[in-house]
Amino acid sequence: MACFPFTRTLAQPRDMATDQRIDITATLGALPAFPQLRGKRVRLRGPTAGDADDLFALFSDPEVMRYWSRAPMRERGEAEGLIGEILDAFSKRELLNWVIVDADDRVIGTTTLFRFDPRHRRAEVGYALRSDHWGRGLASEAVSLAIDWALRTLDLHRVEADIDPRNHASRRVLERLGFRSEGVLRERFFVGDEATDSELFGVLATEWRERRR
């Protein structure tokens, strides 16, 4: 027997809690600029043209890019192009790709919220950090800032992340933040000629808030 999704009719009771929820699309659309988020050691802000050298240093590092779904950058112009893509995507409210900066306002990484799904109240998070800053908890701090903002401002129900299963450092970041592994998708990405797996992680808003009480 085929099974079809039902459509809510006018005779069904309304969910008043749903009616009062934040309109994710409208809230994103009303943002005048990248929200600036400040932690104890790092800050998240939107990228500028002056960040090209730092972003090229980040994304041309083979260690940083080892488990990404694209090869390392080879020319500075790619970083300039990335900045343009980030700003264009923000103008369409398709993603929020912050740069992570230190106390001197130098870019040391990125944190991104993307694939917003207003209907199901979820989004994905991604991140990268300069390899000479690994092991200090800075990625965890930056990702926490982004997720705290998303849950508070957009009232998301769930945040997801995916990693290459071999990326144990990234796994530790997610597990430290309360994400749970939810399965492996085999050979989901090609990096050059290599087919790589993708492991999906997720955290619910209720779980996130419970850990921070």
From TrEMBL:
Taxonomy of the source species: Bacteria, Pseudomonadati, Pseudomonadota, Gammaproteobacteria, Lysobacterales
The protein's name in its UniProt record: GNAT family N-acetyltransferase
Organism: Pseudoluteimonas lycopersici
Molecular functions per Gene Ontology: protein N-terminal-serine acetyltransferase activity; protein-N-terminal-alanine acetyltransferase activity
GO cellular component, one term: cytoplasm
Keywords: Transferase
CDD domains: NAT_SF
Residues in N-acetyltransferase domain copies: 42-213
